[in-house]
């Protein structure tokens, strides 16, 4: 290979290489959150310092009730932290951060609207012209594999299809970051794997930043670029690991991947002591 | 995955259609059988009544089916039945519309304005616990004994049922749902139009369906107390003449009117909430 060709080839490959220091999108600085309830105050999380970089796929994993969802809620601006700050692109998050999309375990589809109607909602709110909105919904439904069900009502859909519909609605308003709170928790293993593959593919294709909460360690490692492990409540960061797997990994084949197996085994050890004490709370 | 998905979607839809067809056939057969049993029941009931009124009990107390039929037929032919029924229908319908319109508006307003709701709550409850027909004498004083007094009485009764249901419907919208909408950039007006009102519709129709018999109560009681037309008047008139069969005939006319109104609400309900039909068709899963 002549030097000239090598030089010419270099810039072409450039876009594929991830910048080492991507800009920070969501930043938690010494964040703690205390909820006042009738039984007294309950500390959900404490001393969280964490940066989510733009374009990265981060999973938050830990035992149930360790305040992972609380972190998402604060990033969305649903409530403020009790201590510390949560900022988005360097600015303190104000109520209702519209640059993020939120997908919860409950899909919150509107039962009186069919699939098209549900996905249409954010576009209607933005005032997108009807014809254009229809086209966009059609594309989105194809992207999430819901073609043929445009006229079905949520009550007629299976759990997996409802998730796809919620995902299409989420993508319809094109938020910069997707906050996902155990979105596939209620699905069976096969369906879950398919949804994981799809959400990763979509996030890569569309260049979305994803913060994905789960209590499933395998899921957390397999889909993440970076995985944040939490301790039992009051939740705090136990460890942050970069997942040393390819960006375009094949999720189906991960079971045979040694790096993946070692990493999940290692993190399992980290979480296991917490699980034994889990019943005491 | 897109390719395979499209073809499986095709077969799934096909199977679904076939399943729905055979299910419909079975449902029709069952429906026919139930219809036959009902018919038999009516025939036996009427026969027993007729025989009893001829040999066992004086028809002064229980009337006689043949007499009742004769009265109804005579009223139908002379136009009496239609005239009185239309008066009662107009009273019930206008009262129903007025009461439910005000009830819905108040329900939505209070559902969204929590402070206002808290302020007026005790007063509303005081008024609610009052049996509304007890207001009739007052309404006669204010509105006379014409048709409008019955309309207002009916509207007062219907108002509370629709108001309480609408209020509950508006309050039942989950806070998470609203938060999700706000993250999409929704303003209060969007939330009201796209989430709150449609989700309250189910509740509103519950209230409307409950109100139908009450709307008739308002109209009939109004007519019984003071009037010279309407099915209630027909009933009071027959009772004044100790004509038991005519009383039964009036009651049957009232019943038929109630059934027609119920049916009308059901039809409107189905049109207004197509997703409900979809829910009913679904296979049961627990």
Describe the SSE topology:
The complex is a heterodimer of chains A (281) and B (286).
Chain A lengths: L2 H11 L10 E14 L2 E14 L3 E5 L6 H9 L6 E6 L2 E2 L7 E4 L11 H12 L3 H14 L15 H14 L4 E5 L7 H18 L2 E6 L2 H7 L2 E5 L6 E6 L15 H19 L5
Parallel strand pairs in A: 3-8, 3-9, 6-7, 7-8
Antiparallel strand pairs in A: 1-2, 1-4, 4-5, 9-10
Helix pairs in contact in A: 3-4, 3-5, 4-5, 7-8
Chain B lengths: L1 H55 L2 H4 L2 H14 L1 H33 L1 H16 L6 H8 L3 H25 L3 H9 L4 H38 L5 H10 L3 H29 L1 H8 L5
Protein name (chain B): NitT/TauT family transport system permease protein
Family (chain B): Belongs to the binding-protein-dependent transport system permease family.
Organism (chain B): Palleronia aestuarii
Could you describe the 3D structure shown?
The complex is a heterodimer of chains A (281) and B (286). In chain A, a hairpin with a 2-residue loop joins strand 4 and strand 5. In chain A, the strands form two sheets. A six-stranded mixed β-sheet of chain A has the order 6-7-8-3-9-10, with helices on both faces. A four-stranded antiparallel β-sheet of chain A has the order 2-1-4-5. Chain A has a domain at 24-96 and 219-281: Rossmann fold (3-Layer(aba) Sandwich). In chain A, 40% of the residues are buried. Chain A is of the alpha/beta class. Chain A has helices spanning 3-13, 68-76, 115-126, 130-143, 159-172, 189-206, 217-223, 258-276, and strands at 24-37, 40-53, 57-61, 83-88, 91-92, 100-103, 177-181, 209-214, 226-230, 237-242. Chain A contains eight helices and ten strands. With 286 residues, chain B is mainly α. Chain B folds into two domains: 1-56; 61-273, MetI-like (MetI-like fold, Orthogonal Bundle), CATH 1.10.3720.10. In chain B, 87% of the residues lie in helices and 0% in strands. Chain B has helices at residues 2-56, 59-62, 65-78, 80-112, 114-129, 136-143, 147-171, 175-183, 188-225, 231-240, 244-272, 274-281. Chain B is flat, with a radius of gyration of 25 Å. The model of chain B has no long low-confidence stretch (mean pLDDT 85). The A-B interface holds A 76, 78, 96-98, 100-102, 104, 106, 108, 110-114, 121-122, 124-126, 142, 145, 147-149, 152-153, 155-156, 173, 194 and B 1-2, 5-6, 9-10, 13, 174, 176-177, 179-186, 190, 194-195, 198-199, 201, 273-275, 278-279, 282. Chain B: Belongs to the binding-protein-dependent transport system permease family. Chain B: This is NitT/TauT family transport system permease protein.
């Amino acid at each position: 290979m002549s030097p000239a060709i090598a030089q010419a080839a270099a810039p072409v490959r450039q876009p594929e290489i991830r910048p080492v220091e991507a800009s920070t999108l969501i930043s938690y600085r010494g964040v703690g959150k205390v909820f006042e309830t009738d039984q007294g105050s309950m500390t959900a999380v404490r001393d969280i310092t964490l940066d989510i970089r733009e374009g990265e796929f981060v999973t938050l994993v830990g035992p149930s009730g360790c305040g992972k969802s609380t972190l998402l809620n604060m990033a969305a601006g649903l409530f403020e932290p009790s201590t510390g700050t949560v900022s988005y692109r360097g600015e303190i998050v104000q109520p209702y951060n519209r640059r993020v999309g939120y997908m919860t375990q409950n899909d919150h589809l509107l039962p009186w609207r069919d699939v098209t109607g549900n996905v249409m909602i954010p576009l209607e709110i933005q005032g997108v012209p009807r014809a254009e909105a229809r086209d966009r919904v059609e594309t989105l439904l194809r992207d999430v594999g819901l073609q043929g069900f445009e006229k079905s009502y949520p009550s007629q859909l299976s759990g997996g299809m409802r998730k796809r519909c919620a995902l299409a609605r989420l993508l319809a308003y094109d938020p910069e970051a997707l906050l996902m709170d155990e979105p596939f928790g209620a699905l069976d293993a096969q369906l879950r794997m398919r949804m994981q593959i799809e959400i990763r593919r979509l996030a890569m294709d569309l260049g979305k930043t994803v913060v994905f909460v789960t209590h499933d360690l395998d899921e957390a490692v397999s889909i993440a670029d970076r995985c944040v492990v939490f301790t039992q409540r009051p939740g705090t960061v136990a460890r942050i690991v970069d997942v040393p797997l390819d960006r375009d990994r094949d999720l189906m084949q991960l079971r045979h991947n040694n790096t993946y197996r070692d990493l999940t085994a290692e993190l399992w050890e980290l979480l296991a002591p917490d699980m034994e004490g889990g019943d005491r709370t | 995955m897109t390719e395979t998905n499209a073809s499986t979607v095709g077969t799934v839809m096909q199977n679904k259609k076939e399943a729905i067809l055979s299910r419909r056939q079975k449902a029709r057969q069952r429906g026919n059988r139930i219809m036959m049993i009902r018919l038999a029941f009516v025939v036996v009931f009427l026969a027993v009544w007729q025989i009893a009124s001829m040999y066992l009990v004086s028809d002064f107390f229980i009337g006689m089916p043949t007499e009742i039929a004769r009265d109804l037929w005579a009223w139908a032919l002379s136009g009496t039945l239609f005239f009185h029924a239309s008066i009662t229908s107009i009273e019930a319908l206008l009262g129903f519309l007025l009461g439910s319109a005000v009830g819905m508006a108040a329900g939505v307003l209070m559902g969204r304005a929590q402070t206002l709701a808290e302020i007026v709550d005790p007063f509303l409850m005081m008024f609610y616990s009052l049996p509304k027909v007890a207001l009739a004498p007052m309404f006669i004083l204010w509105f006379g004994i014409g048709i409008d007094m019955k309309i207002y009485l009916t509207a007062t009764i219907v108002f509370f049922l629709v108001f309480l249901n609408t209020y509950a419907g508006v309050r039942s919208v989950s806070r998470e749902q609203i938060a999700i909408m706000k993250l999409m950039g929704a303003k209060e007006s969007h939330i009201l139009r796209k989430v709150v009102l449609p989700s309250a519709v189910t509740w509103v129709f519950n209230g409307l369906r409950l109100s139908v018999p009450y709307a008739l109560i308002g109209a009939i009681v109004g007519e019984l107390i003071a009037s010279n037309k309407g099915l209630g008047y027909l009933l009071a008139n027959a009772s004044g003449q100790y004509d038991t069969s005519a009383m039964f005939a009036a009651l049957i006319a009232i019943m038929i009117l109630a059934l027609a109104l119920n049916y009308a609400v059901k039809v409107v309900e189905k049109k207004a909430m197509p997703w409900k039909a979809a829910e009913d068709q679904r296979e049961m899963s627990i």
